[in-house]
Amino acid sequence: xxxxxxxxxxxxxxxxxxxxxxxxxxxxxxxxxxxxxxxxxxxxxxxxxxxxxxxxxxxxxxxxxxxxxxxxxxxxxxxxxxxxxxxxxxxxxxxxxxxxxxxxxxxxxxxxxxxxxxxxxxxxxxxxxxxxxxxxxxxxxxxxxxxxxxxxxxxxxxxxxxxxxxxxxxxxxxxxxxxxxxxxxxxxxxxxxxxxxxxxxxxxxxxxxxxxxxxxxxxxxxxxxxxxxxxxxxxxxxxxxxxxxxxxxxxxxxxxxxxxxxxxxxx
Length: 267
Hints:
CATH topology of the largest domain: Jelly Rolls
Strand order of the largest sheet: 1-8-3-6-9
Number of domains: 2
Shape: globular
Order of helices and strands: EEEEEEEEEHHHHHHHHH
Largest sheet: 5 strands, antiparallel
CATH class of the largest domain: Mainly Beta
Strand content: 15-25%
Distance between the termini: 35 Å
CATH architecture of the largest domain: Sandwich
Oligomer: single chain
Helix content: 40-55%
Number of strands: 9
């Protein structure tokens, strides 16, 4: 699934609730005119989408796209507690509507401290309803959608990032123009280089080298897009000392040659 195709999707949040169900809670059967995304952080429930039954427990998302028939009820012995959002979707680039996210109905992420924190912030914004609250609510909800997208695309369980990995990423972001040795990164966080490499890949879905390359290529793209730099200058300022290698890697990551950006500006 090409998740890059959804980079311009904007959610319009129309309803949000931190729901703590009574044992008798239910949603009557009916076609919905919005998207429903519900994150269960405690208890159990059952949803039916177009007649198909899905059993949910702690750490599960249920996604019901617009136009589907939805029905739900909670487990009476373990009533569901969840964050539920109803929203519409549009594409900022094409201004098209009626977009559906490319997700399975049930997304198992587990209980994530990061997700709970984002949802708690969204809950506060939505309940307080201070000036410009819908824009801030939309921003936080977009972060939540991004976390889910990354979880699905990478296949890696969602969890709060290890502070050692955050420290390494910060170092890379500040030093990607220079040569970065894995041994140096391992020394920074006090880990064996081999263990660090495996640890980083498991958490991020890519090797440290791939991560560094991605940062460098994205930086070069930014320099070329904003103007004032030749391809060789952008390469040098992004940590590449071999122009041929830079062009080859850039094309592999972006799907086009770096010179295309210059031609687009008439340079």
